[in-house]
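Ticket #4471: structure output looks truncated?

Reporter: J.K.
Steps to reproduce: submitted the chain below (102 residues) through the standard prediction queue, then opened the result file.
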Amino acid sequence: MQLSKTIAGDEHAVMILDQAGWHGANDLIVPANITLVPLPAYSPQLNPVERLYLKERFLSHRLLDDYDAIADAACDAWNRLTAELGRIKTLCSYPWIPQVNT
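Returned output as attached by the reporter:
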């Protein structure tokens, strides 16, 4: 709902979601100025970031005390991953990306 309030009256937002169970709650109310578009199941080529494995490599099997600890762990994981820029480019490159990234 908060995101909806930031969208100008003549604009419309489209949010692309993977098929995670929590993205499809039956009681979810989507504002009229937002459209949710689910990706097809098992389509990593449409969601290249899935191939980065942040959760598996840096964030799994951990219990964190509070929000700040979660934010710190996520930032640390991202910083460790971005240090491997070549790996990111390799994992997330698909031939169709340059064609739509104009």
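Triage note (M.O.): checked the attachment and the full token line is present. The CA atoms of residues 78 and 96 lie 25 Å apart.
Status: closed, working as intended.
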